[in-house]
Design brief:
The protein is an alpha/beta fold. The chain contains five helices and eleven strands, in the order αααβαββββββββαββ. α2 runs parallel beside α4.
Length: 191
């Protein structure tokens, strides 16, 4: 099996697991993840944090974004600018979002290009493994953006069922420095 086939199969398995999760358990798990991240030493000491505005099938980051902002941190969110590129913009609150590519709420704040100043990058994924390997949605946006953040400590966040034994990876795939997950109150991946 090729790496691409292995990635496709894992994406399909995770999508099926996502469909089977209970909304109330996922909300509780997202709340738990938010608290874990806010108390994480790297996040606590960070001045500039790149995160993402979650889609309905991802660990919910909406409360996290506002909490980081309330702590006085500079919060950055990606904006898709083309078929293969993203830029970062400042997040200034819920009112500064508009629907962008793929139905993702994106920031309308000032463009941010001082990538060296980003302390922490909180990154979504379909699945992660204990080695920090990440499976994205297959478009490669984060694999192109993350190499531009040389100093950023990369934290992948996920629900317990998204932490798998192994993620097939290629040389260009960017590893996370750490993966933070919930305690797994919902379904686990048994396959």
């Amino acid at each position: 099996m090729t790496i691409q086939e292995a990635k496709r199969q894992l994406r399909a398995r995770i999508r099926e697991l996502k469909r089977r999760q209970e909304a109330t358990l996922l909300a509780h798990s997202s709340q738990e993840l938010c608290l874990r991240l806010l108390s994480h030493p790297r996040v606590k000491s960070a001045q500039v944090v790149m995160a993402y505005h979650s889609l309905p099938d991802e660990a919910d980051t909406h409360a996290l974004l506002d909490a980081l902002l309330a702590e006085g941190k500079t919060v950055l969110l990606p904006q898709v600018t083309g078929a293969a590129s993203m830029v970062l913009r400042k997040y200034t609150g819920k009112d500064s979002l508009r629907e962008g590519a793929y139905g993702i709420m994106e920031p309308t704040g000032a463009l941010f290009a001082d990538y060296d100043s980003i302390d922490v990058a909180i990154v979504p994924g379909m699945a992660f493994d204990a080695g920090g390997h990440r499976l994205g949605r297959g478009k490669g946006y984060y694999d192109r953006l993350l190499p531009l953040l040389p100093r950023a400590y990369k934290i992948g966040i996920c629900h317990a069922y998204q932490l798998v034994e192994s993620v097939a990876h290629e040389e260009h795939d960017i590893r996370m420095d750490e993966v933070v997950r919930d305690e797994g109150l919902g379904l686990r991946d048994e396959g």
